[in-house]
Amino acid sequence: MTQGSTHAVKASAQEIAYRTALAFSRTVVPAVPGIVFLSGGQSEEEASLNLNAMNQLKDIKRPWTLTFSYGRALQSSCVKVF
């Protein structure tokens, strides 16, 4: 969960990862096989850093697979070249 676009302080990828995983651990049942993230207007780098930070967490039990569908975000720089 990233902060709002008008928020004065930008959260780190580690804080975003921790708070997102904590919220999921409190609300998503372990029977859910996976959670797929969209880039949600983040840049390629931000989206990748946030997902990576979530997958690096050791403190919070994550019984589900975390993955992404960042098609547009990851293709953005390539599309700009052409």
Helix fraction by DSSP (H/I, runs of at least 4): 40-55%
Rough outline: globular
Radius of gyration: 14 Å
Q: What is the arithmetic mean of pLDDT? A: 83
Provide tags for this entry:
82 residues, two-stranded parallel sheet, alpha+beta, 3 helices, globular, 12% strand
How would you describe this protein?
The protein is of the alpha+beta class and 82 residues long. It has one domain. It is 48% helix and 12% strand. A two-stranded parallel ribbon has the order 1-2. The relative contact order is 0.21. The mean pLDDT is 83.
What's this entry about, in short?
The chain is α+β, with helices and mostly antiparallel strands and 82 residues long. The protein is built from three helices and two strands, in the order αβαβα.
Describe the protein's topology.
Elements: H1 13-27, E1 34-38, H2 44-56, E2 65-69, H3 71-81
Parallel strand pairs: 1-2
Helix pairs in contact: 1-2
